[in-house]
Design a protein that fits this description.
The structure is a single chain. The protein is of the alpha/beta class and about 170 residues long. The protein contains seven helices and six strands. Helix content is about 35%, strand content about 20%. It has a six-stranded mixed sheet, with helices on both faces. Strand 4, helix 7 and strand 5 (about 150-155) form a beta-alpha-beta unit. The chain is globular.
Length: about 170
Amino acid sequence: MRKNLNKNSLIRYSRQIILKNIGTFGQKKILKAKVLIVGAGGLGCPIADLLTRSGVGEIGIIDYDKINLSNIHRQTLYSTKDVNKYKVDVVKKRLNLINKDVKINTYNKKANEKNLNNIIKKYDIIVDGSDNFKTKFLINKFSLKLKKILIVGAISKFDGHIFTFDFK
């Protein structure tokens, strides 16, 4: 995992670096960021993909599901060859192909009261891509307790919502 901008990094991230509100200072912050994504489904896949491409230094992904055929059309990191494999295992392999400099941590487990505190405390930003209210409430509880930035996404049919909470 690179924390500095070498020649390859400058080329790879050049389109971000030229943006007025990012520049080299902002890209260095991105390279040092640690983001946890809860859920590797319809929201988690594109989020993990784009964060990896942008150079986020460390990404954690927690999910306990296996890929099924009905996931393929909307969960962008999976193919039919991945059916019956654990989502986090496939995501890690795909993300490593996209950007080997990003550290990918996977948690093949259901987010719950016992494990979420220890996982969330390792990250700066928490992204909730979960698909049930019980998990969403737990993520909120521990993000608030640990004073994290929480980004909550939700999709229902053709409607989507995103909320950001800065509990710092």
